[in-house]
C-alpha cells in the first residue's frame, strides 16, 4: 500500500506539473520585442543558458573567373559550436550574448578526404591548405530594446504554412589585415557577401513548451580567394554553397569533422567561455599570424 501511495503521489505530481507547464506554455508573438528576441535566441542558442549548441553544414566550393567555366575546387564540411549567456541592462532589458568558435575543412572533391596540400590549377604550385579555424566568432549583445528604446525586430521573418523562414544577408567590406595602409586609395579591402537562410517549423519555434528549436540553414559566401591559395592578385572569386542544421549534440556531427577536430583542433569540441573578451578571428587574421610566426622563426634561424 505504501508503494502504491508513493507511486500515486508521483503520478499526481507529474500530472500536475504537466498541467502547469501546459498552462504556462504560450505562442510567441514576433511583433513583440521580448518574443522576437526569444525567437532569435532559439535560432542561435542551446536548450538553456550556457548549454552548447552545434550547427553543421556541408557543401561545395567553386571558383568564378572571368572568361572561363566555374570550377568545383573543394567539398566542405563545417561546424560552429556556441553557447549563449544571459545579460541584463537596466535600459535595454534582459538579453543574451553568444560566443562561438568554428571550423570548416576543405575536402578533395572526388575522394572527400581532408586536404593537406592542394595543387593550384592556375599557377601549378602546390600549396599547404589552411582550413577555416576561427576562434572566437562572438556576437554583439542582443537585447529586447536598443539604447534609444527601439524594439527588437526580425524584419525578414515570414511564415508560409507550417514553416518559418528567416533569411539575412551580410555584405562585408572592411580593412584587410593582409593589405597595406592605403586601401581607400588603391583597393585590396576585404570584400565578401555572406547569406544565411534559416527554415524552421513554426510550431516548434513558437510554442514555449519547447525550450529551443532546431532550424535548417543554408549558407552562401562569395569572397576573394583564400590567402593560402597564393593567387598573387589573380582576378576571380570563390563561391561557397552549403546546407545544414542545428544539431542536438556534438556527437551528431559527421565522423570526418569529429576526427579532424580530435586530431588537430581539440579545443573546438566546446564553445568559448561566456565572458570571452577576445577579438574575433577570420581566415585573414589567422593566416597573417601564421605567416608572421613563420617569418619570425625563419629570421631567428639565420
UniProtKB/TrEMBL annotation:
Where is the signal peptide, in residue numbers?
A: 1-24
Q: Which Pfam families match?
A: DUF1838
Q: Which UniProt keywords apply?
A: Signal
Q: What is this protein called?
A: DUF1838 family protein
Q: What's the source species for this entry? A: Parasphingorhabdus halotolerans
